[in-house]
Amino acid sequence: xxxxxxxxxxxxxxxxxxxxxxxxxxxxxxxxxxxxxxxxxxxxxxxxxxxxxxxxxxxxxxxxxxxxxxxxxxxxxxxxxxxxxxxxxxxxxxxxxxxxxxxxxxxxxxxxxxxxxxxxxxxxxxxxxxxxxxxxxxxxxxxxxxxxxxxxx
Length: 153
Ligand code: CA2
Prior knowledge:
Elements lengths: L8 E7 L11 H4 L4 H14 L2 E7 L3 H11 L5 E5 L8 H10 L3 E5 L21 E4 L3 H16 L2
Parallel strand pairs: 1-2, 1-3, 3-4, 4-5
Helix pairs in contact: 2-5, 3-4
């Protein structure tokens, strides 16, 4: 197993299904920034906080599960917007629980002000915490919170 003890903090940023469409559809709900622009902001914020962020997006549940498994040897923590899988995926929940890496859940929209089916998150109970409703800023707040958590373990 790789020893990450004295490396700068490295964070896997996982974006779930449909988030590749950001900035191109439904800007009223999800904002006008593209995923590439959000990733750039995260990389800049990470650099300010002496951390390196590694973003990836997939529309496929199994690909996200694999990425979480592989995170164990490569990253100190996970920042995740699981998209609609937030509300359906026991598999993603179990993967996060299995690797036991600190994870922070983020959402662009406030999921509790939306349809009832979005009010339950399978991720929440295995996450350090959740940030929801601040648009792209949710990701930056989530990154700050995750790094704060990791630096104070
Ligand atoms: O608010 C969030 O970040 C969500 O995770 C976004 C998911 C939604 O299913 C969750 O309930 C809350 C949907 C992501 C869809 O992204 C789109 C982006 C542009 C256009 C259409 C969809």
